[in-house]
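Hello,

Our lab assistant flagged a job as stuck in the queue for most of the afternoon. It eventually completed. Since we weren't sure the result was trustworthy after the delay, we are filing this so someone can double-check. Below is the sequence as submitted and the structure that was eventually returned. Let us know if re-running is recommended.
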Amino acid sequence: MKKKMFSLFLACLMPAPLLLSGCGDSGHEGKTVVELVQYKPEAVEIFNQVAEKFNSTHDDIYLKVESPNDAMTILKTQFVREDYPDIIGIGGDINYSYFIDSDILADVSDYAGMADINPGYIDILEGLEFVPTEGTYGVPYVANAAGILYNRAMFKEHGWEIPKTWEELLALCEQIKSEGILPFYFGFKDTWTCLAPWNALAVDLAPADVCKQVNSGSTTFSEHYRDVAEKMLELVAYGEEGPFAYGYNDACTAFADGESAMYTIGSYAVPQIKSVNPDMDIDSFVMPGSSDANGNTLNSGVDLQFCVTKACPNKEAAYKVLDFLLEDENIQMYLDDQKAVPCKSGNFTLASNLDGMTEYITSGNMTDYQDHYYPTEMAVDAQIQTFLINQDVDKFLSKFDSDWKRYNRDIIRMVQEYEANH
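-- returned structure --
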């Protein structure tokens, strides 16, 4: 029996205006209105184009796309008030887990389009469930890939080779540094940027389900995150002086201007970098956190999925919208605009900045972001930033374990009750 976790929503909500209209309104020039609310502010224009294209080719359905600022806060507020859009476009993170547990989302296992989705991304979504749940509640659309972006032209000029192990990465950093070039730019003033290298290292060094293991009481973060923390400290030594004085935009600009050879960030940063230097030749490689090249995996998660709400009065119309969104031509349009990775199997053209990660994508050797399991209230990004400033591994890990129990006590209780009964 599912627990309702609206209390978890309310704990992290701020007052939000009622920006969304009711769901499933009919009568827009005689058409069924399907309301889609999506959370990506950087994709507003491409969604507007998709909606315009859909509405010009469908006589019976009108697609209404809304892209409010701070969409997740607004969505949660609307859900508490039992006011639901028909489809939501959200990421594969802990908010998705809350929505499943609160019985807000419809089971879409009967949607025929699921057959074309890469099974690896379906597994990633299922892994986000607090406890195993029958059914499928999201249609993965696009993913992103995180690791290390690098200046391909600079690498070619200096003859630097892509590292496959942690030791090779450190040797490369020393080589780059010896040639008077900064290996990395970090931009850790914006706390969320601290999560990029953290996640990329954690998928190599910690179990993919470490958060579930901790919830079940079988292990601790102190046991599995020590190597991650220590290697984060090693990386920081190869970055800009005072990385906590510079933010994400500063790091993107510096990397675009050739001030560093590499940047530990995801593919999602490429449009921002290209806005500074449109001609920059960027490629990427998987973070080689392990001493064994075979132990490395691509840090990739569902960046955007579509979920039909249980309150949607016309599931058939919603599925027609999903059919349209999943047409190859429309997916490719999104990929070209956002430099993303398709979750649908098919012959898609990926951005050149993903060349070094293609083998991992095609083989399915990928692992979800660890922070997709972290509760927002725990502010892990700020904890990592503080740790990198103070450089006290033991204190950081001890606080991580104690805060996890504090902010996840309801989930821990639910998981342990489930395991006791199964």
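-- support follow-up --
The delay was a queue issue, not a problem with the job. The result is valid. The domain at 32-144+301-354 is CATH 3.40.190.10 (D-Maltodextrin-Binding Protein; domain 2). Residues 393-407 form the longest helix (15 residues).
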